[in-house]
Amino acid sequence: MLAPMPKTKTLSDGNVMPTLGLGTWKSRPGEVKAAVHAALRAGYRHIDCAWIYGNEAEVGDGLRAAFDEGLVTRDEVWITSKLWNDAHRPEHVEEACRDSLTKLGLERLDLYLVHWPVAHTRGTMMPETRGDFVTLDEVPLAETWGAMERLVDAGLARSVGVSNLDAKRLAALSEGARIRPTVNQVELHPYLQQPALLEAATALDVALTAYSPLGSRDRAASMKADDEPVLLEDATLAAIAEAHGATPAQVCIAWAIQRGTIVIPKSVNEGRIRQNLEATQLTLSADEMARVAQLDRHRRYVDGTFWTDGESPYSLAELWGE
Ligand code: A2P
Question: Is the whole model's pTM more than 0.85, yes or no?
Answer without folding.
Answer: yes
